[in-house]
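Example 3.2
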Amino acid sequence: MPATANADSGRGPGDAGPVPARYTGQTLDWQPCADQPALDCATMAVPRDWHHPGAGADLSIA
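Structure, written as tokens:
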């Protein structure tokens, strides 16, 4: 599936509307990865649903 497709709504990611500042204002704190210290990892919060970013709990992506 192309990155611009959304199987649930038929809308592309550009249709989601403005992104809340809690996502765009994050600062990533790069540290050695726990399982591979030779690599750097950081964690950021993302909404479960980009079309409704304030509607539910966030996910953490590392």
